[in-house]
Amino acid sequence: MEKALHEPASFITQADALLKKNIAYQKRRMKANIGIVLSPALLFIMIIILQGFIDKLTTAIDKATECPCDDRGMAINATFRETCATGIPNINPIMCRVRSPQKWPPLVQVPKPEFRAARSTYMPFNDLPDLCTKDNYSCPTAFLVTATNRSFAQGLMDNMFTALNSSQLMEAVQGQMPKNASAGTNVTSTLPTISDLALGTDNMDEKTDMFLEYSFLEGGPIYLLQQKCFKEVEYMIPLNIANQTIPQELKCIEGLMIWRDSSLNISNEIAQGFLGNGKLQANEITAAYDLSNSGIDKHNVTIWYNSTSQPDKAILRVPRTVNLVSNSYLKSVKGSRSKILLDFVKEMPQSIKTQLLKQDFGTLIGSMFFVFLMQLLLPVIINNIVYEKQQKLRIMMKMHGLGDAAYWIISYAYFLVISSLYLIVFMIFGTMSKMTMFRMNSYKVQFLFYFTHLNWQISFAMLASTFFSTVKTASVVAYTYIFGSGLAGQYILNPMLGTNSSEIQIILVELIPGFSLYRGLSEFSKYSTSGFEAGGYGLRWEDLRDSANGMRAVLIIMVAEWLLFLVVACFLDRPAGDGSGKASDSKRSKVLGKTFSRMDKLNSLIEMEGADIAAERNLVEQLAQHPDSRYTVVCESIVKVLKGRDGNPDKIAVKGLSLALPRAQCFGMLGPTGAGKTTLLNMFTGFSCPTSGTAYIGGMDIRTDMNLIYYSMGVCPQHDLLWETLTAREHLSFYGKLKNLKDEELNQAIEESLKSVNLLSVIDKQAGQYSGGMKRRLSVAISLIGDPQVVYLDEPSTGLDPASRQFLWNAITQAKRDRAIILTTHSMEEAEYLSDRLGIFVDGSLQCIGTSQELKAKYGGLFVLTITAQSNQDEQIESMVKEHFPKVRKTYHISGTQKFEMPKKGVKISSVFDLMEQAKKKLDITAWGLADTTLEDVFIKVARRANASVL
Fold first, then answer.
1. Which of 162, 122, 164, 116 is CA-nearest to residue 138?
2. Average pLDDT over every residue of 662-682
3. Disulfide-capable partner of 740 in 9, 667, 746, 882 (CB 3.0 to 4.6 Å)?
4. Quick check: helix, strand or coil at residue 819?
């Protein structure tokens, strides 16, 4: 049979048509698109405003709680005497601004006496000190040393502590300060002298607030580290704290430098001593030094320091440990008079605001907020796809030749552009809001993660859209998913990250959509927080190689799911109705197996067909043997079985229909609701696949060549499938390009199509501003553009006024000159005016076929006499008519109006007129009429006869 007259539009042409249509459509939705892209900006602006409000609030609190002190820090009056101190224990620094934190001498962290390293059964080192009395302060403390050059290292260790005898120490400590110093005495000069000494403490600072050195305030001893102690001497150090002089007890402690052969031995000893071999007490060292890379010309030292049982945010007291070895090195190479000064340590001044809000508001609200924010586009994407499915726009485009590949690629590109703009705004305003999560982490890593997630989100939305048919349901489910995934991440995944859950368990959880996003944001938050507190950086590119970092696994999961979701979405995508057009041969055979169990009934129906139907079937059989290019549509014994639902049996919707439709003919399909007309059109247009039999459109089989048939057919659906914001020109330009029309040919086709339906004057007016009749005419113009071989018009004039209907009929009459048209309608007037042949469908079967006159002659042959009189004269009128015409049959009777059918044979029209003239003299007859059989009468008669035979 003849193939399509038009070459199919290439992928590039289809993509170009869809792209230009989408650009025109999105231009009219510019405000909505801008709102979508700027939505993160609005949220960040709200956060900035809220952050500013909190800043003002905390600043007000600062002013309200600031101590009423003078410039010297002294209380203005006695009421505030105790609240104006800046360093004594009973002052809570959160309630009062700390103007000038105290300077504290740097200390070395020394183990408590009961934990200091000593010889034991599990510490077989003979050079460790003997066990000493643990309840006093006489135990020495150990320092471990290793080096390649032992003599050099020994010289450093000898210079570690200032060697003073008792008189020198007394002079150094008390020479500048009276022993009985009183409050208010200036002791500023004392601090540098004390800082020259190696002081230590065994206080763990469990109550530290980063402003006070509690070792000087709680009465515990301050240790003086020496190579040899003079136990008979006790010292009191006067310290100036908050303008008060506080005497401080000073005790000497011996610091033993113990040699180890390697840093590995040091590490093992530290670990073994810390564990205590399962004992209640541990053997702890004060510090250890690896001088393997140090020498006269180079100072490169690795230091172990004691942080045992330190509470969170406690002072680790590392500076003095570093200073001791550095100062000793300087003395060894430059002489004993050279030294590195470390006079004091102190916390920077802070207020309530800097203490309560160490981090920004965005970090405080956590990853869950950003999970919500990053997924706000998900409902937008799903709704866009589902909207085109719900409004049947996707199907309309497919029936006019748009391929699935072009649709998905252009749609994906549009969503990616919107998502990328959204991401740019998200990152710009996130940075402008000064959130540490944006400022601390590498922008390269952030962009990679967010961009990967956006692609993942698009593919996930495409997959999710295949499960929805209405926008309302899709929106509810999408927003529920957004909030649910954020909450689930916060209360399921987040606890797992803080426990001993294995990495495999965490990865399995991250495979669930939404959890991988939460994990990635959690990594950003974690790294930015630690970087902020340490004064360093957040997540860097090189951190992705860290096995403890979860970002790399998240990126791999997202990329894998991104590709997987795309493949599954393409597989599940069924734009053409129920998708049975994609059914495999095996599936179709399975359906046929159920159908053929009732084929005996179907065969009997075929045997009962009338002569006109049998003649049509014979013609189709001849065309199957000897194809004729004059016939555009050839339907060969097509059957469609609809699967029963809710326990109902399967239904044969189309029962072995055969039909041959030549070019330049309009075939009108009449039938009651549920007769099978729509099901037949669905098979012709690719909505569904026939259960058995087939149809050829332009020589192409609807079972195998539907994608090619789309290029040579036009469809005007029952309801107008239009984009409200596109003009008539833009509609026809889009569909014309899908039919492979280009340039001048396309422009000419657009003008001719709109002129034929009288819409040329509103060619650039948006379809949403059209009346119902104008939209209907535009739908017909769309179906006719591109010179299709066959056009399907489903009730094209429904709802039109008489003038618009006439314009439409004229356009269809002109269009059928060189193409086949299949028309469905409930208007008998329209069917007679447009159709060259008519077929009446009842219960899935074609009951009759022929021209309007042939059907009237065959199923009519009657006159219809209508008489209207007074209702009390109904019996008299009926008796009079039956008396003169014995074969008459009353078909209608209500409120004085009666209708009678009488065979034409044996009835003269003049005799009817004579009878009614005589009756009007005797009876009160207000109106009467005699009419030939109408097409409506034929339709009713055929439908009743068919229903009676089925019953």
1. 116
2. 88
3. 9
4. coil
Q: Give pLDDT, residue 474.
A: 92
Q: Is pLDDT above 90 for 861?
A: no
Residue with tokens 């909030």: 483
Positions of E strands within 748-819:
790-794
DSSP string, 541-585: GGGGG-TT-SHHHHHHHHHHHHHHHHHHHHHH---STTSGGG--H
- Which long-range contacts does 315-319 make (Cβ < 8 Å, 24+ apart)? 315/205, 315/208, 315/210, 315/213, 316/109, 317/106, 317/107, 317/108, 317/109, 317/201, 319/106, 319/345
Instruction: Please compute Rg for the chain using Cα positions.
Output: 48
Q: How much of the chain exceeds pLDDT 90, in percent?
A: 16
3-state class (DSSP) for residue 19 = helix
Tell me which residue of 109, 139, 331 sits closest to 199, measured CA to CA.
Answer: 109
Please give the helix or strand (H or E) that residue 927 lies within, else none: strand 925-932
**Residues contacting 316, CB < 8 A, separation 6+:** 109, 305, 307, 310
Terminal alpha carbon distance of the chain: 40
Tokens of 518: 């939460």
| Angle CA 193–197–198, to nearest 5 | 155
Q: What is the DSSP letter of 345?
A: B
Q: Among candidates 826, 824, 823, which has minimal Cα distance to 812?
A: 823
What is the bridge-based pairing of β-strands 141-146 and 287-290?
A: parallel
Query: For residue 329, what are its two tokens?
Result: 């090195």
The CA–CA distances, whole Å, from 860 to 609, 813, 902, 931 equal: 19, 27, 10, 12
Check whether 291 has a pLDDT greater than 80: yes
pLDDT the model gives residue 287: 92
Per-position DSSP letters for 253-305, written without gaps between them: EEEEEEE-S-HHHHHHHHHHHHHGGGSSS--B-SEEEE-TT-BTTB---EEEE
Domain limits, the chain? 108-348, 370-572, 580-854, 861-932
Task: Write out the two tokens for 535.
Answer: 């004064």
pTM: 0.66
Please give the pLDDT value at position 174.
53
Tokens encoding 211: 């402003």
Query: Tens digits of per-residue pLDDT, 196-252?
Result: 788 888 887 655 454 567 777 665 678 888 887 765 545 666 666 555 666 677 788
* Element at 356 (helix H, strand E): helix 352-356
Note the pLDDT tens digit of each residue in 168-177: 666 655 543 4
Q: What is the pLDDT of residue 178?
A: 38
Q: Residue 471 — pLDDT band, cuts 50, 70, 90?
A: very high
Nearest residue to 795 via CA among 811, 813, 774, 780: 780
- Parallel, antiparallel, or unpaired: how do β-strands 897-903 and 862-869 relate? antiparallel
User: Is residue 750 predicted with pLDDT exceeding 50?
Assistant: yes
How is domain 580-854 classified at the CATH fold level?
Answer: Rossmann fold (3.40.50)
Q: What mean pLDDT do residues 875-879 have?
A: 84
The rounded distance, in Å, linking the Cα atoms of 381 and 375 is: 10
Report H helices in 436-502: 436-439, 443-465, 471-488, 494-497
CB contact set of 589 (below 8 Å; sequence gap of 6+): none
What is the three-class DSSP state of 681? helix
Query: At residue 178, what is the residue type?
Result: P
Distance CA 511, CA 137 (A): 58
| Mean predicted confidence (pLDDT) in 712-740 | 89
pLDDT at position 148 over 80: yes
Q: Give the span between the Cα atoms of 467 and 472, in whole angstroms.
A: 13
Query: Quick check: 666 pLDDT over 90?
Result: yes
SS3 content of the chain, % helix, strand, coil (to 5): 50, 15, 35
**CATH class belonging to 861-932:** alpha beta
Both structure tokens of 407: 């649709």
